[in-house]
Write a structure and sequence with these properties.
Radius of gyration: 58 Å
Number of strands: 30
Strand content: over 45%
Shape: rod-shaped
Number of helices: 9
Helix content: 10-25%
Structural class: alpha+beta
Largest sheet: 8 strands, antiparallel, barrel
């Protein structure tokens, strides 16, 4: 190199920024020899009308920053530092006041430079003119690079001339799939080695917004990024202490479970929360992307469920004890009534016109007490008691064989009755109304005070009689609450052993108590019923 050539080269060096890069890597290589030789390049950043050399120098410095086995000469100060090691005064060298050729040769040898690359930005810097020369500035090749930015263009330029690689490490929350420049590369956490350059990274996970970022893979460096993806869908949870509750969204018939997270697309939803026996709760919610919300819902028992529970509380109290007033009316000839403290008894006096027994109407007023046990639709009254006062002033004709026919006037009397094992059914229609009916036997003991108005035995006498009655009873209970009820009842009785061809009628009303199942009989009956049903073959 003659002095004129050197002076021209030194002037060029002083007008641009000098960077030295040793053994880099890239994706595109202009000549096969360059890639195979892994040659060292000295990069010269030139200016353009819109982009200064300092801007290119700064970008180049950042692109190769931290690259392994690479030395950097950045700016005039860096170049002067190297030249001064050889005792070369750069301004004097440029001015031609002292020889520089030996110093330049020594510098290039020290740096191990095989090629010199001139980088000239075109326009705004997204297009680069790259010219490659050997160490004596003899141009060997030239390329033109177009990119979206000057940094991307510089990365491509480095990649065109070197085989530099770097490592990319990508993590995300949650785990996601990755694509680089549109090509799928794997899932996070991801680690991979690739040629240096700028890449478009897309991070995708179902239910989240995609994250698209531009990343740079630098020579010999790890590029590590972590992304917290923003949820695209929305989540919400309905909290409720109601067991067995479910959630419905809009018109979707699919029920979701309560207290579990539900993931949906953002938007407006009508949420219905319900459970068997409860009124539905309806609410309109608006969910934005990424929302994670909770709603607390307290369901109220439905009217039907309240009635069912009230009804069940009554059913859970199967023992009934009731008392009431009764009024009765019957016609009797007092056939078979025995004289108290005597041997005479009343026989039926026959009416001359009809040949039927002469009867007298008897009214009664009394008090009843009953104990009843119920199970499902069955009720049993094992024991009942009543005491009645017999009221009558009707005249009747009775015949006593010992003395003949007498005319009697029934004045007063009383009846004591014992009801034994009356069995029937009931139906608790709701928590208020309960009709029932029973059939059974009643033993009755009557005492009668009568005046004998004719014959030789005129006076006041007392008679007694025992009767066996077939009772048919029907009535209704009106439950005030699970403990207390009122009732009304009609009864029809037939005298089985005193020639009672006409029934006795009665009506009674009173109050009663529902008592708990202190004997546990209902529970045993329920278990026995379930056990019997379980033993029946399914194909029956």
């Amino acid at each position: 190199m003659n002095r004129t050539q050197y002076t021209a080269h030194a002037t060029a060096l002083s007008a641009i920024t000098l960077l030295a890069i040793l053994i880099g890597g890239g994706a595109l290589v202009p000549t096969k020899a360059h890639a195979q030789d892994r040659a060292t390049y000295l990069w010269l950043a030139e200016s353009s009308t819109e982009v200064g050399a300092t801007d290119v120098e700064s970008a180049l410095s950042d692109v190769v920053r931290g690259a392994a086995d690479t030395r950097h000469i950045v700016g005039n100060a860096g170049l002067e530092a190297h030249l001064s090691r050889h005792g070369l005064d750069v301004p004097r060298c440029i001015a031609g006041l002292e020889p520089c050729a030996g110093a330049v040769d020594a510098l290039l040898e020290e740096l191990g430079v095989n090629f010199i690359v001139r980088v000239t930005p075109q326009g705004s810097g997204t297009t680069l003119e790259v010219r490659v020369s050997d160490a004596r500035f003899n141009e060997t090749s030239a390329i033109r690079i177009n990119a979206s930015s000057m940094r991307d263009a510089l990365f491509r330029a480095v990649g065109e001339l070197t085989n530099a690689t770097g490592t990319i490490v990508v993590n995300s929350i949650p785990a996601a799939t990755l694509t680089l420049n549109g090509d799928p590369v794997g899932t996070t956490p991801y680690r991979g080695t690739m040629r240096i350059g700028a890449y478009s990274l897309r991070v995708h996970a179902d239910g989240y917004f995609d994250r698209v970022e531009e990343i740079e893979v630098r020579p010999g460096q790890n590029t590590a990024v972590t992304y917290n993806l923003e949820r695209r869908t929305a989540r919400f949870t309905v909290r409720s202490g109601t067991p067995g509750a479910w959630v419905l969204l809009g018109e979707d018939p699919s029920a979701r479970a309560i207290n579990e997270e539900i993931e949906v697309e953002p938007g407006e939803y009508t949420v219905r929360v319900g459970a068997v026996g409860y009124d539905e709760a309806v609410e309109t919610i608006v969910l934005a992307p990424g929302d994670d919300r909770e709603f607390s819902v307290n369901l109220l028992l439905s009217e039907a469920e309240l009635r069912r529970r009230a009804r069940q509380r009554i059913l859970d109290r199967p023992i009934l004890v009731q008392t009431g007033l009764s009024f009765g009316r019957f016609n009797s000839s007092w056939n078979g009534a025995d004289l108290v403290d005597g041997d005479n008894s009343i026989s039926c006096a026959i009416r001359p016109t009809t040949g039927a027994c002469e009867r007298a109407g008897v009214s009664s007023l009394g008090l009843n007490i009953d104990a009843i046990y119920t199970w499902r639709f069955l009720e049993v009254a094992p024991l009942g008691f009543s005491a009645r006062v017999l009221l009558s002033n009707q005249r009747g004709v009775a015949y006593r064989p010992e003395v003949g026919a007498d005319t009697l006037v029934h004045r007063s009397g009383n009846r004591f009755a014992l009801r034994l094992l009356h069995v029937g059914g009931r139906h608790l229609i709701n928590d208020v109304f309960e009709p029932y009916g029973r059939l059974g036997i009643t033993l009755a003991w009557d005492r009668l005070r009568a005046d004998i108005l004719s014959g030789t035995n005129q006076g006041n006498y007392a008679f007694k009689r025992r009767s066996t009655l077939l009772d048919i009873r029907a009535g209704s209970r009106f439950h005030i609450n699970s403990l207390l009820y009122a009732y009304g009842e009609l009864d029809l009785s037939f005298d089985l052993n005193n020639g009672g061809t006409r029934p006795e009628f009665g009506v009674q009303a009173g109050v009663g108590l529902n008592l708990p199942d202190i004997f546990g009989l209902n529970r045993r009956l329920d278990r026995a019923g379930r056990g019997a049903s379980d033993s029946v073959p399914g194909d029956l």
